Amino acid sequence: MNKRLSIGKVLLYTVLTITAGFTLYPFLWMISASLKPLKEVVGGQMSLFSENMSFDNYRYIFGRTSLFPRWFLNSLFVSVVGTTINIFVNTMAGYALSRLSFPGRNQIFYALLALMMIPGQVLLIPNYLIMHRLGMLDQYSSLIVPAMANIGNIIMMRQFYINFPKDVEEAASIDGLGRYGIFFKISMPLSKPIISTQAVFVFMGFWNEFTKPMLYIKTATKYTLTLGLQTFSSKDAGTMWHQVMAAATITVIPIIIIYLIFNKYFLVGVRMDGEK
Amino acid sequence: MSDSLNQITQKRYRYSKKAKKEHKQAYLFVAPAVFVSAVFIGLAVLFVIYLSFHKVNLFKHTYSFLGLDNYARAIKDTTTRVAFKNTLTFSAIVVPTQTFLALVLASLLNSKIKGKMIFRAIYFLPTLTSSSALTLIFMFMFSVTGPINGFLIKMGWIDVGINFLENPAFALKVIMAMNIWSTIPFYMTLYLASLQDLPDSIYESAEIDGAGPVRKFFSITLPYLKPMTTYVLITGIIGTLQMFDQAYIFSNGSGGPANSTLTVSLMVYRYAFGTQNAMGFAATLAVMLAVVILLLSILSNKLNKSDSWY
After folding, report:
1. pLDDT digits (tens, 9 = 90+) for B24-56
2. Beta-carbon separation of A229 and B136 below 8 A
């Protein structure tokens, strides 16, 4: 019995490790290539390691003539501002749709559900024209304003506040807090875990967005990282794989750090999705 | 008229001062979300449908009504057919493969595992990474002098590196491989999370009844995961049919080599924002794609609900 169990365990960890290896392999190559000189990167070598490894590529992309640091800050700015606005907009809407009663509440909820079904690709052309009309093209606002609310997260917050204990709010009300005070000082701070889940996914969405900056942003100094990354690969002299991989590594690192810090909130998100 | 008047007086009676304050707060709270969704989704969708019946001249700002001409053109157009064929092939291969492999791996791994955190962190990596970075990593891996060709040459299977990126026979397949690779670990984690709620006692009683591992998989695991499978299938269909970033980056926006990576979304982009200056026609293609996505999502939802596994 014991023996059979251990064979099962060995098999289990073998499958786990092989899957992990498959997943990691391209990332290991990314890091490896980011540390090698171009000559070795395109040399068709099979080894991940080399004697000539250095941080030269990183030094180059962060160099004085490079726009890369600027793009990094642009991405950070758009992601942080966009996420902050999203948290308030989604949480307030979710709260109103579950906790407050008002005429038209159900109609608004079902309208939002219907709008959520519309595939994003179909909205690119009209939104481009709308933003053209509003003079928002080539501005950071074109990346932030249309993505200020997220219907999926509004529904998640609504679900959360449906189950949120009423007596906490009642107690706060007796203590003399007004309606807005109750929301901003009691209900919202008490929902930190679910707000973190929301924040993590929204931030990831902003940070990794490619299509919108590609369409809306034209000035090179206003590029986000995802867009700037592509300029390394479309230079006339052929693709600078060593620099591309260094730049790619830098774009991945902040998200990995966020994942490691907010690990448990990612899982909450997974569970939430699973319940749909 | 008298009816609505009646309603108003009734409402006046019903809503106290306190209730009115609550309404005010509620409208304030939903206003930003409703505004953004109404303009950038609601209005946008009406606008794109309007555009699809028109010929658009961006410079002169004229919209001339064409009726169904754009739709007729799309149906006859050979490039459109290529784009839809590429997109549907992509979806038809990627969605079943990723769903099946994620499901099998999850049911294999559904046991008490040590080091769960580390494995999960690794499996999440592709989900965390932008398509922009992932596509470049894969383009590097599959480049003529890249590690994949290096491996094939070393094994003696080929003499000269294959130009995966510029060969029409391979280009879309590389993107497929990338998509399957990057989504399996995430969907597997979804399945695993869902399996955690399945009580062990069900498996134990099945074992007592003499069920083997295969029987247990088909009679317990699969039916239990059905709602999750519907979710994985639908998000897979929606995601793959809209595939744009990878094809754009891979082909530098051209859909090449020889239109082999031209997806519908990429074609929409090329016609709307490229040299063709055919925004109305592009809008038509986008609307057609949305209809296909909607129909396929409804269909897969229906199919997965109809056969009674429970």
Report:
1. 999 999 999 999 999 999 999 999 999 999 998
2. yes
pLDDT in tens, A41-95: 887 777 888 888 889 999 988 987 789 999 999 999 999 999 999 999 999 999 9
**Model-level pTM?**
0.89
Task: Name the residue among B26, B29, B147 with its Cβ closest to that of A46.
Answer: B147
Q: What are B250-268's pLDDT values in tens digits?
A: 998 888 889 999 999 999 9
Q: Which CATH class is domain B69-306?
A: mainly alpha
Q: How far apart are the first and last CA of chain A?
A: 40
Cβ–Cβ contact B124 with A under 8 A: yes
> Is A19 a domain residue?
no
Count of domains for chain A: 1
- Evaluate whether A89 touches B32 at the Cβ level (below 8 Å): yes
Residue pair B262/B248 in contact (Cβ under 8 Å)? The answer is no
**What CATH number should be reported for the domain holding residue A270?**
1.10.3720.10
Q: Which two tokens stand for residue A116?
A: 């959520």
Distance from CA of B304 to the nearest CA of A (A): 15
Residue A22 lies in a domain: no
Contact (CB<8Å) B123/A20: yes
SS (H, E, C) chain A: CHHHHHHHHHHHHHHHHHHHHHHHHHHHHHHHHHHCCHHHHCCCCCCCCCCCCCCHHHHHHCCCCCCHHHHHHHHHHHHHHHHHHHHHHHHHHHHHHHHCCCCCHHHHHHHHHHHHCCCHHHHHHHHHHHHHHCCCCCCCHHHHHHHCCCHHHHHHHHHHHHCCCHHHHHHHHHCCCCHHHHHHHHHHHHCHHHHHHHHHHHHHHHHHCCHHHHHHCCCHHHCCHHHHHHHHHCCCCCCCHHHHHHHHHHHHHHHHHHHHHCHHHHHHHHHHHHCC
Residue A106 scores a pLDDT above 50:
yes
Long-range CB contacts (< 8 A, 24+ apart) of B8-16? B11/A103
Are the beta carbons of B220 and B110 closer than 8 angstroms?
A: no
Instruction: For chain B, give every residue range classified as CATH 1.10.3720.10.
Output: 69-306
Q: Which domain holds residue A194?
A: 36-43+52-274
Residue A11 resides in a domain: no
Contact A260, A109 (CB under 8 A): no
